[in-house]
Amino acid sequence: MDQPIEPAPCDAVAHLQWMLRARLLEERLSSLYRQGRIPGSVFTGRGQEALSAAIGMQLRPGDIFAPLIRDMAGRLAFGLPAIEAARTYLGRITGHMRGRDGNVHHGLVDQGMLPMISHLGAMAAPCVGILLKRKITGALVAGDQCVAVVCIGEGGMQTGAMHEAINLAAVERLPLVVVAANNGYAYSTPSHQNFVCRDLVDRALGYGLRGWSCDATDCRAAWQTVAQALAAARSGDGPQLISARLLRLAGHGEHDDAAYIDPALKAAAVDCLDQGRQLVLDQGLLDQAELAALHTTIKTEIDAAVDQALGEADPVASDESWQIFADPILAAGAGAQA
Amino acid sequence: MSSPEATTYLAALRQAMAEVLAADERVFLLGEDVEDPFGGAFKATKGLSTAFPGRVRNAPISEDAIAGAAVGAALDGGRPIIEFQFADFAICGFNQLANHAATTFWRTGKPCPLVARLPCGGTPGGGPFHCQMPEGWLTAHPGLVVVAPGTVQDAYELLRAAVACDDPVIYLEHKHLYYHLRDPGFSAGGPLLPLHRAAVRRSGRDCTVVTYSAMVQGALAAAEGLALEGIDTEVIDLRCLKPLDTETILESLARTGRLVVASEGWPYGSVASEVITQVCAEGFHLLDAPPRRVAARNTPIPFHPALWSAHRPDANAIQEAVRGLVNF
Ligand SMILES: Cc1ncc(C[n+]2csc(CCOP(=O)(O)OP(=O)(O)O)c2C)c(N)n1
After folding, report:
1. Residue nearest to atom 9 of ligand 1 (CA)
2. Which residues contact B25 (CB under 8 A, 6 or more apart)?
3. To probe the interface with A, which of B62, B95, B179, B293 has the most A CB atoms within 10 Å?
4. Rg (CA), chain A
5. Whether B287 and B152 share a structural domain
6. Is residue B89 within 6 Å of ligand 1 at its C-beta?
């Protein structure tokens, strides 16, 4: 443990693009919600895009990704088409969740992106199970193995489910990367009412795994921390715990005005997107005009995807089979009945 | 029922909490996001942490610990009230409720008086994990009392009675009723009512509809419609799902001879199936037609409002079932 890890280089422009795609998509979805066109609520990752995009971009085919509420950027970078996110929020029959599940509760199982259930902490153990199964069947090749990344907030880190799963991964020395995004609040509850250790990374020691801590409002720090933890996990170093500090720059969902957030924190908040823009300017990768053009291009692309989803069909109840079983024999029999 | 000054279901249950906190120093409240200024995901506890400093406390996202802490506090002479943010997440505290709270008195002779509040039931766009009715699995475990208020007055009465009860009580509060149900005639401060008695909400001669929680309103609406067709429906609000007030149900069936049990929950292993089983065992001779169950579809709860409405039973489904029995 604890040898230095050479981080993969960051393409700052590509990173910014994924952040921007997520931001613009979520802004469009939020405005649809305010127009009453999205049922339930919309949950954004505003302020957390740098971390989330860094994860999605650095995962490869064969890896497992269990994104959570704030991970639109990671989902898109991992390969979720923007239109699928819109279809899920709108409940379109054309979407991969077919109107059966909505908002952030979706995934692409075949591509290794697990569809989250709401119960916080519940996505970690399935990630461990995938890795364990691959270990047992000899599919984990030490040195450059696949990894599973599970995202969680500092609130969700306090579930028993999270604890059990991390410990199992540690015991089995599996390439699990836990990304704990401490965004200051779990719904209305400030972090100090969820945990009192100095930094969640301190828990790594207790579990016997390697920990990483970063300021994830800093695009480069977010990228490099993810890069290092992934490299360590791929190399056979066992589970990794990333503790990322940031601030939720939105309500818990768009129904929430977040009036409870400490005004001093709000005033001092850093938006990783602004930081990412500044970075590409400072590095001379883009100039102001190119940045503006990038914004326009992405906005056009996102609007086209959302507009297409808006034009698609809702599910029709009379077409629903109410069929629950996968097994063909059960499905042919009493499936819909119970 | 909808004058703006009338008391809401949510205000009634908040008032009950304020009263028990004021009257009994053993009472405290633990849950996620319950403290002011937020006052809970549904604002059920708004103002209470300010009015009762230190006794209304935010918990980490740790349902097992919240439920287990209530067990410990109850064993040490407390009267804890815990709030799960959604009934769906109570399943993460199920071990402490079902195996600990529920078994303690039977194993040791020491009561375990706690109240677990579970915001339950469907709202459009809630999806599979924010709309569940958990009474099926909670009533299956011996030792838990399960109540489900379907009126504003009962939101108040049943919560007071739950805190007074020496057993662990699961209090199912329906999210749709929070702001939608109002009662201009609400009155506080009366004597404690028994927890375990059903109430006849509407008398009728032709058919009995047994129901609870938000479906009480659906059943009353169905009965109004059926009255126009000349069908006289009796509506029984169970109030308490365990133990069941079978006596009130059988008395009603002695008048009507026909039974529909309506619930928003899933059909399998449900309160509805238990009511029908008990009626068949003890009141088969009273029945003129086979009892019917009106329940949700046997799938997870869909997100899209069109699927959601088709998944859950409504007043129309109740009317259809009653008509079927009357024409049997
Ligand atoms: C087991 C469980 N309990 C409660 C909830 C309700 N809930 C949904 S999100 C949330 C706050 C989550 O906070 P955190 O984990 O810090 O993530 P953030 O929303 O800040 O990204 C809560 C309490 C839940 N989804 N699952």
Report:
1. A187
2. none
3. B62
4. 20
5. no
6. yes
